[in-house]
Amino acid sequence: MKNVKNAKGFWGSIVLVIIFTVVTQFLINGGTLNSFYVNTLFSIGINIILAASLHLIIGITGQFSIGHAGFLAVGAYASAIVTMKLGLPFPLAIIAGGIAAAIAGLIIGIPTLRLKGDYLAIATLGFGEIVRIVFLNIDYVGGASGMTVSHLTTWPWLLACVVITIVVIVNFTNSTHGRACISIRENEIAADAMGINTTFYKVIAFVIGAFFAGVAGALHAHNFYIIQPTNFSFLKSFDILILVVIGGLGSMSGAVIAAILLTIISTFLSNYPEVRMVIYSLVLIVMMLFRPQGLLGTKEITSFLKIGKSAKGGVQHDSKNTVA
Amino acid sequence: MEQLIQQLVNGISLGSIYALIALGYTMVYGIVKLINFAHGDVVMVGAFIGFYSITILDLGFFPALLISMASCAIFGVLIERIAYKPLRNATRIAALITAIGVSLFIEYGTIYVRGAQPEAYPDNIVPLKSLEISGVKISGQSILILVISISLMILLQFIVHKTKIGKAMRAVSYDMDAARLMGINVNNTISATFAIGSALAGAAGVILGMYYTKIDPLMGITPGIKAFVAAVLGGIGIIPGAMTGGLLLGVIESLVSAAGGSLWRDAVAFVVLILILIFRPAGLFGKNVREKV
């Protein structure tokens, strides 16, 4: 009975998304939304995918990774090669971007996920920089001047990717495997002692996160006409990190809300990039000083609507609100 | 052969700058177990203070170096008191995120205040002659860099091992609670650590400006991360380790760029980092510590 109810909610939200897609597409085609709003909408979509994918790695599994821009870069370049050099269709490019990033995640995840906390952070940061320098040195993808990519990202494709990302990650979180990942976040040694293969689950979460970051990279590349290695420096990783930290480490809806809000704020501040960064950094510091668990902590937005029901995807009590 | 020795000398002088920065990282990590991401930006601030004291105040190189070290020490203590002290009992991740925030704030605050344009560091502030030993030309700049860094490191060793505050620092890094029970003022000791580390970073900033001949508000990021790699390479929290790690990293980098991979130079540090973390996470000088449950 409960399953049927949940399924009803699920299909209901899918129908809502489809209606939303049709309406916004109609508005875009009709010219009601000018290109400024359309660009903002596209950025919001891409940032939601990025935030959700990093949320799986940091918020759910508790592995502090700050090299997410590396996966974004791998996805962007792989998909750009597929469409621009090989001339294959765009959907294939999205999948190729995701798979390439997932492979990169596997290669980097197996050795580095043995590390903990600060060391893992620095190792992933180093990985992100290595990826950037590698692309900088490959002439096939244009080196420092970058690669021009035609604009293929459309609104329905973008929304479809956002929905698939959220559905996959939420379902993963609520599955046995997701519970295993949460147990690793709460206490890795205890999880290990309970018979959970911690390395396996950490790598799995990392690979899934990397896959969706690659998908976001594909959408990003085909939205902005040009990709350059400088777009994927570790400031980009920090941008993604800020979304997850502000939304609440361990809260999917928090990450999505933060992605929407911060994208809108940064669009309005795009003429003053240094002001934007000063505000971001201050928000980050103040947030850690006064509310280290982020806006929503590990709660989901649904837990505020259904009072009495426990939150999904997070711990069930408030005493321990941050990861690691 | 002469080329090789030339590159080695270059590597050692670059490496001694890394070592100076790495010392700050390693001391702070040793005492509060925090990767002070903002350390690279203290280097940048030091470079700018040195630059303005030379150009605006018209001072010589050594007074500028001293002013830069003193101001950076104060700056470091301020960062610690405002941003890190309230988080002393918070989770490691919260402290790390704060450090990233502080780092971004210093970088973009500087850009906001003075703009992002780079400045050319004044040349020939110190009259230097290059030295020639059997065909190998060693620039006066390398010698100066080496002399300054080695004397600062000797001074640091003296402070850590022979003075009262050094003894307190070692005690706090060994066991903070026990040190507090013994009547050591832990907060002051931590502030002193930040002050010493930041003073070294300020000196490194001035030298780095001289070495690269160009400074800008984002110059601290790359040397900062590389110095952190150097600290990990030598074993984080171990002072001789940071020195060795810095020199080693500088030499490796110079050799790679001499071998024709100058574009790959920045990647080398990270490859070294990942290799060391995989094969010897405690660093060259570190001992493996068993984890207690």
UniProtKB/TrEMBL annotation, chain A:
Location of this chain's protein in the cell: Cell membrane
Residues in coiled coil: none
Topology in membrane: Multi-pass membrane protein
Keyword annotations of the record: Cell membrane, Membrane, Transmembrane, Transmembrane helix
InterPro entries: ABC_transp_permease, LivM-like
Location, primary (coarse class): membrane
Transmembrane annotation, as ranges: 9-28, 40-58, 65-84, 90-110, 117-135, 155-173, 200-220, 240-265, 277-296
Name of the protein in its database record: Branched-chain amino acid ABC transporter permease
UniProtKB/TrEMBL annotation, chain B:
Listed transmembrane segments: 12-32, 37-54, 60-79, 91-113, 138-160, 190-213, 225-251, 263-283
Places the protein is found: Cell membrane
CDD domains reported in the protein's UniProt record: TM_PBP1_LivH_like (cd06582)
Keywords: Amino-acid transport, Cell inner membrane, Cell membrane, Membrane, Transmembrane, Transmembrane helix, Transport
Pfam families in the record: BPD_transp_2
UniProt-listed InterPro entries: ABC_transp_permease (IPR001851), BCAA_transport_permease (IPR052157)
Domain of life the protein comes from: Bacteria
Bilayer topology annotation: Multi-pass membrane protein
Signal sequence annotation: none
Family listed: Belongs to the binding-protein-dependent transport system permease family. LivHM subfamily.
Name of this protein: High-affinity branched-chain amino acid transport system permease protein LivH
Origin species: Neobacillus rhizosphaerae
Lineage: Bacteria, Bacillati, Bacillota, Bacilli, Bacillales
